[in-house]
Design brief:
It is a peripheral membrane protein. With 550 residues, the protein is α+β, with helices and mostly antiparallel strands. It has four domains: 138 residues, Butyryl-Coa Dehydrogenase, subunit A, domain 1; 124 residues, Butyryl-CoA Dehydrogenase, subunit A, domain 2, CATH 2.40.110.10; 129 residues, Butyryl-CoA Dehydrogenase, subunit A, domain 3 (Up-down Bundle); 104 residues, no CATH class. It is 49% helix and 11% strand. It contains 19 helices and ten strands. The strands form three sheets. A four-stranded mixed sheet has the order 1-4-5-8. The protein has a four-stranded antiparallel sheet with strand order 2-3-7-6, covered by helices on one side.
Amino acid sequence: MLSGARRSAPDIVKPNLPTPSPLIIKWHAFRRATTCWTNSNPRFLPALCLPPVDSAAIDSAGCIPPDILEGLKQLDLFGQQIPVEYGGLGLTVTEFARLSEAVASDPSIFLLLAAHQLLGLQGLLIAGTEEQKYRYLPRLANGDWVAALCLSESESGSDLTSIKTQATLSEDGDTWVINGSKNWVTNGSIANLYIVFAKTKMEDHKGQIHDRTTAFLVEREFEGVSCGQPDDKLGIRGTSTCEVFFKKTPVPVENVLGEVNKGFNLGLDILNGSRYGMGGLLTEVLKKFIGWATEHVVNRNQLGKTLKDYELIQEKLAKVTSTTYAVESMTYLLAAMLDTYEDPDCTVEAAMLKVFGTETCWNGINDCLQLLGGKGYLKNYPYERLLRDMSITMLVDGANDALRFFIAFKGLQHIGPLLSERVKGMRNPLNNPGLVFKTMWKRRNQAKDHPSLNLGLCNNLHPALEVPSKLLEYCVLRLQYASEMVLTRHGSEMLIASVFCHDAYERVKAHIINLENAPFGSNHVNYRTIASKVFKNKGYFLAHPLARNF
């Protein structure tokens, strides 16, 4: 399925995106992970049978207690996305996202499971042979084994083209020998199976030797595998992160993951496919902070009235609530797309969720800390610990600045072939006067920043959303115009294109603000209305996307 984000850049908006349906839990899959089902649960998910989690103790000790790990095993939470035939729960992406919200009560526990499933064993699900899957997945599903991804290195980060770890085939052709080390390996010291990316040699048809990348399944018990001291991290201190060393480590040829010299694309697939999993963590943490901030401003008196009566307080809390709703909606829309379509291409959408969601969460936490006042600066409250925990989210799974370029590049890469003939004609106006005149006539309103809002998006939405639909149409049309201008003026000069797209983004954002505050009224009234509902409900009050979609 073609990415909706890429398609919307030059094309007319089409109402073919799925919406998340109310979640119908497969009881047979959840029977060990949940208590008795009850429809009275407002969060539409039974409480997990985990032992009491002392997140402060986990943060202080720098590890997750054995009884918590055993509880995770008994609930089969290590095998959420492993197919049933290999001993896992076989959850859909939507079910996984919903369960992640419950697990995200402690970010260290969330990251332990996410690194195991979204990074560690994902390569095995994507490219593993049936023999490899039956050999490893059952043990990974029941938690007896933990998986870890060994990709990043100190000098190259996650750039697969620059890694230094080498794998050499033995003379008898039965064994690969790996030498090198990997940094920032999450679950490194507790993992039993490492997915290791190493450089291998390839000879082309001319006899020339080239470096390529190959992925290997390396067991902890293989000779030459060792771990360094755990990294002393700022946050998520309960997870194990360390350097892993491979010194003349022999790996059987049957443990090659995928094809020899074809590991580069597998590595990209793993990284691109893991970003959707962060949405549950982000929304859960934001909802926690909204609840804490609400409790504080409702009960705190200042200058003769409670903080909740001040308009600036109402506006700040309403903004955090509205952006949390946006992150939650993006999470479950993306989950529905991944569940609905066969072989979906949602890498751009996942990158968008990661960038927008992590920065929204960081800014939302900061706003809530301001509302909490001096309490937010004390270590005997959970606020500073969660602030430290969430600081990593903008760096893992691709730094946000790099993902911004990725989003812009993928969009331009898609529309380039669609507009190639028009762009060629516009670059040669003397030879194509008819095309130039026709195009300029169509663009006359766009050039004046007054595009014709004729996409008809409002026809597919609730009547109350007519104004927001027009704002979205404006953004889509301006993005289309900006994309065409970039390709016409700069062609394949992607560095210039990325700068242009950034400027276009700032311009569109400014115009959206003007539109919101002009003919459609001010948002101050809306902020007060939202804030009053937050106060009334003592926290985040919106229905979960899986509770209803109307």
